Amino acid sequence: MTAAVPNTAAENEVMIELRGVNKWYDKFHVLKDINLQVAKGERIVVCGPSGSVPSTMIRCINRLEEHQKGQIIVDGTELTSDLRQIEQIRKEVGMVFQHFNLFPHLTVLENLALAPMWVRKMPRKEAEAIGMQYLERVKIPDQAKKYPGQLSGGQQQRVAIARSLCMNPRIMLFDEPTSALDPEMIKEVLDVMIELAESGMTMMCVTHEMGFAKTVADKVIFMDRGQIVESNPPEEFFNNPQNERTQLFLSQIIGH
Amino acid sequence: MSHDFAPLPDLPPPGTTVGAVGWLRRNLFSNVANSILTLFAIYLLATLLPPLFSWLFFKADWIGDSREACTSGGACWVFIRARFSTFMYGFFPENETWRINLIYIALIACMVPLFIDSFRHKVKLGVFVIFVFPIFGFILLFGGVFGLEQTETSQWGGLTLTLLLASVGCVAALPLGILLALGRQATNMPAVKSMCVLFIEFWRGVPLITVLFMSSVMLPLFLPEGVSFDKLLRALIGITLFQSAYIAEVVRGGLQAIPKGQYEAADALGLSYWKKMGLIVLPQAMKIVIPGIVNTFIALFKDTTLVIIVGLLDILGMVQNALNDPNWLGYSTEGYVFTAFVFWIFCFSMSRYSQSLERKLHTGHKR
């Protein structure tokens, strides 16, 4: 588990492609000419001194944020303002949020079964069976009947991961999944993510957990001031950072 | 530091801080000002309550069938008894009032299972009560089919009319209000949004009494000749539109209280707009706004008495009508006390029901 196992099968199949993507918040230029390719099964960790730039980038991939210039192609479909295409892509792209965003009025199992039932039109029984299966995979099947508010942060985040997996996505996006957790809960969430990475899921993860990056990432991307500064395999990235800003960032992160 | 830990025994609290004496000290006589207020309140109750109770109950006349029975100087409840059926049924044909009673009984029979926790088909029953029951009720009230004698809407009155106006107003205004609130939130559809804003601000800006006047006096002027529709129907439409504007604003408050993350999580799972709203956002928002919605329902329930100005006689109208009867002149106090009591019963029940609903729907997130 020291280095990522390179994914040999279908290495050339591109799952996510960003071509010259630009985004502005009013006049503030958040993303500047982002070019990026993610192959099937690739695990990408994105980091940066300000969490918002990497977050904004991955939120563009499932259109939670709109980009104003350039192309984003996910699983062969280009993101435009066409609602059906957006919904099509969202079915295939799971997302895990910093603040879990579980539905507080539904039980854990109902949270899990909701999207398969209403988006995939699966019968309730089947959807709940799938929900239980993923709940077992994140090791909390005994919490199925509880409401999210009764779980710890780490358990909630594991439910959130399971909820995304229930849609059987081809890509998983993680937006700072451990930033809102108490230190003792980070490990249980990272363990689930590592297991998922080892199963061959295509993943993009915004995180500052450099241990996680070293363990599973195929590529680490460092972003600063709206640009991709450096993009390298973890050994290269951590041992031999090319850019001055990457070096500074790493020294600060590892220093503390 | 190696002393054995010996827990102290639990002692009862000092006698003056618990029990009735403790409670009195803490709450009624905690300081001089509080003690004076307490004594003043006791004095007020002692002077006001005995005459009130004696008028209401002890010296009141209950039995009889004309004003000759009212001799003891208290309230003359004989008046209410004698006119009770007109207060309840208005001018509905007397031998047809079983139809109204049947509606009440059927409605209660449908509502009871909704209060039983273990009943599993609440949603189906709710849909039935909202969509099928009104048709059943209308057929029974209006008649003209199945050998039922046809009635005129002008014969509908009393409490029946009050309940009809209030329930149609609430049931029809709620979905309309929700749609208006959603429309007002639709920032990516400026045309829809501005229409909703215009609608809401117009109806919120005019008093209900004006709406009723407009619907009964002005509207016929704008309609083409020969087209006329029922006065009651016009009042109902006016009340519904008026009420929906208020509901919309209450619901909007709830929508704004739902964190952005809930919308994003629903989006990220691929839920369409209507599924996102129907399954995730509205269930949470509606739960938050139950007190506000019930508040507007209660206000509407009382506002229905305004229909008297367009000549519809609800329970208050029927009471006033009875007060003009030469046989019963001078019993207005009894009439208004009775009306107030009926309104209070309904409004208080609504308020209690909303509180129990809030408790029942309270899931986890604050537990």
SSE topology sketch:
The complex is a heterodimer of chains A (256) and B (367).
Chain A: E1 14-25, E2 28-39, E3 43-47, H1 52-61, E4 69-74, E5 77-78, H2 83-92, E6 93-96, H3 108-118, H4 124-137, H5 153-165, E7 171-175, H6 183-198, E8 202-206, H7 210-216, E9 219-224, E10 227-232, H8 234-239, H9 244-255
Parallel strand pairs in A: 3-8, 3-9, 6-7, 7-8
Antiparallel strand pairs in A: 1-2, 1-4, 4-5, 9-10
Chain B: H1 19-27, H2 32-58, H3 77-89, H4 97-115, H5 122-142, H6 158-185, H7 190-205, H8 208-222, H9 231-256, H10 260-268, H11 273-288, H12 290-303, H13 315-323, H14 332-360
Helix pairs in contact in B: 3-6, 3-13, 4-5, 6-7, 6-9, 6-12, 6-13, 7-9, 8-9, 9-11, 9-12, 10-11, 12-14, 13-14
Overview of the structural elements:
The complex is a heterodimer of chains A (256) and B (367). Chain A is built from nine helices and ten strands. Chain A is 39% helix and 25% strand. Chain B has 367 residues and is mainly alpha-helical. Chain B has a domain at 157-361: MetI-like (MetI-like fold), CATH 1.10.3720. Helix content of chain B is 68%, strand content 0%. Chain B has 14 helices and no strands. In chain B, helix 12 (290-303) packs antiparallel against helix 14 (332-360). The relative contact order of chain B is 0.09. The model of chain B has no long low-confidence stretch (mean pLDDT 85). The A-B interface holds A 62-64, 87-88, 90-91, 93-95, 97, 99, 101-105, 114-115, 118-119, 146-150, 163-164, 167 and B 259, 261-262, 264-272, 275, 279-280, 283-284, 287, 361, 363-367.
